[in-house]
Amino acid sequence: MARRDDLLNGLAMGEWFRQFKRTGTKWIGTIQPRVSGLKFKVEIDTAFHPPVVRVLDPPLVNESGKSLPKHHFADRTLCLYHRDDPGWDRRKPIALTILPWIFEWCYFYELWLETGVWYGIEYAHAEEKAREQADQAGRDAAA
Amino acid sequence: MLPLAGYFENMMKLIRPSAERQRLADTLPDEVRGHLEKSDRLMTVSGAPVTRLAGSYGRKTGQGDIHDVDLLVFVDASYESQAPEVVLDDLADALTELEVDGYGKGEVKTNRKNRRSHHVEFKKDGAKAFHIDCVPVVRWGDDPDAVLRIPDREWVAWDDTQPLGYATSLIEMNGANERKVKRTIRMFKRIRERHLRHSLKRPKSYWLEAKLYDIWKAGRMSKDWSYADLMYRLLTEFRADCAIYSTRLPIYDPCLGRDLTTTWEQAEYDEFVDMLDTVIGHLDPIANEGDAETAVGAWQRVFGSDVFRLSNESQGKADEAKALAGNAKVTAGGLLIPRSNPTPGIPSQPHHFFGD
Fold first, then answer.
1. Over residues A54-68, mean pLDDT
2. Cα–Cα–Cα angle for B136, B141, B142, nearest 5°?
3. Is A73 in CB contact (< 8 Å) with chain B?
4. What is the pLDDT of residues B270-283, one digit of tens each?
5. Closest-CA residue of chain A to B347
């Protein structure tokens, strides 16, 4: 229940949360991070830890094609942070962590659509794999 | 495939016929109608429009400043009982002294070889010349999309055509697909314009349209795809159909169903297929994502770097986005702004977007 309280606290903290409506564990609202930019209807499901976020509308490009948009899992949820990031903590209000990242994701997604470049700070799977390989090599050498 | 929507949107603006040329084309039916009404050389229909814009300008599927403006001239049905030469001669007489605002009087040029129409050529200092291609047509009944009768290319008999029926179907299909059908047609014509020799007469613009219309109609495209995916798929689908035939690809009229490409010579056809292979070869390496620089370079080889580029507006947005990376906050109004902006907001915690 603590996480829901966090979200309620977060909702009380800013005008931009007021529009989010709750149904069960899901919070749904529409955001527009850029002036005259795309509007995104997003869903935050607090039944999971950490919360799971999806864009409900507009349909994300390539969803019907072979590949997925940037920073997006196969189950259509957004990849907002890396596990080593200090920003996410279950004790922190979602409104202060997850929600600003959703704004960023939507903003950078819109620019990625236009230019093909993801301007947000990212940690690609390829880098993760390279780091894991380096760690393993280090362990092997130590052994 | 990266969507590169900003590049495609900007290119579509750049390859459209100029506003001046489109305006000119839009006013021509009235100008020609007014001229023909004053002439007693041609028997035109009464109580119905006498002229109608057709071709790429009429359907708004042209790219660049098209040289020819196609105009249908609705003539009295009694002409159909006579050899087409009669109506073509009368039309040539009636078009004499035709004047277009800003261009002055045109010159009627009749070329009997493989033509159903009369050219009226207009020239102006400092402006590109253009032709009005006037085709006499007979329509039976009042249905605006009906099958029309036009002179054949040898001027000895009358043929069926249904350009307005096709135009109506195209508008409907375009509307049902978020206007992507006409845009992909324009972009495909741009590829032909850029990669094929200018002297190559085939494939005609209308053949390409008919084939692309057919591919869309068969459900092989989706309005949900990005323009990048659509263009790559159109090219590969077109090429796949070419592979079915050992000689030239038949392309069927969307309304009448007859084969349009019977005059496509093998050498011309082979050159077109080679062009498809070249263009698809540029795009294959970026079909499964890749970085933006590589993808943009590949598309520039397809469309030309003069048109496949970001607008200043998009470039400005990209610069703003760079400034926001790792340095953003959300205002009470729900906007993402840099932390340096004095407007109060909740700062975004440090994080990395993860995943490819």
1. 71
2. 95
3. yes
4. 999 999 999 999 99
5. A100
Strands B107-109 and B328-331: unpaired
- The predicted complex's ipTM stands at 0.79
pLDDT at B240: 97
Nearest by Cα to B205 from B190, B189, B191: B189
Reported as a single tens digit per residue, the pLDDT across A63-74 is 444 456 677 777
Q: How far from the centroid of its chain's Cα atoms is residue B130's Cα?
A: 17
First to last CA, chain A: 45
Mean pLDDT for B307-332 is 93
Rounded CA-CA distance A55/A61 in Å is 11
Region A49-67: what's the mean pLDDT?
A: 75
How far apart are alpha carbons B289 and B297 in whole angstroms?
13
Say yes or no for a CB contact (<8 Å) between B355 and A71: yes
Residue A3: which residues within 8 A CB-CB, separation 6 or more? A46, A49, A51, A90, A94
- When pLDDT is cut at 50, 70 and 90, the band that residue A1 belongs to is very low
Shortest alpha-carbon distance between residue B320 and chain A (Å):
10
Give per-residue burial for A40-76: e unless 16+ CB within 10 Å, then b. Answer: bebbbebeeebbbbbbeeeebbbeebebbbbbbeeee
Q: Does A11 touch chain B (CB under 8 A)?
A: no
- Helix, coil or strand: residue B156: coil
Q: pLDDT tens for residues B32-61?
A: 888 888 888 888 887 666 888 999 989 999
Do the Cβ atoms of B91 and B120 come closer than 8 Å? Answer: no
The answer to whether A80 contacts chain B (CB < 8 Å) is yes
Assess contact for B182 and B172: CB atoms under 8 A: no
pLDDT of residue A137: 77
Sign of the Cα pseudo-torsion (B308, B309, B313, B318, in order)? positive
The contacts of residue B249 (CB under 8 Å, 6+ apart) are B211, B241, B242, B261, B264, B269
Does an H or E element contain B84, and which?
helix B84-95
pTM higher than 0.80: yes
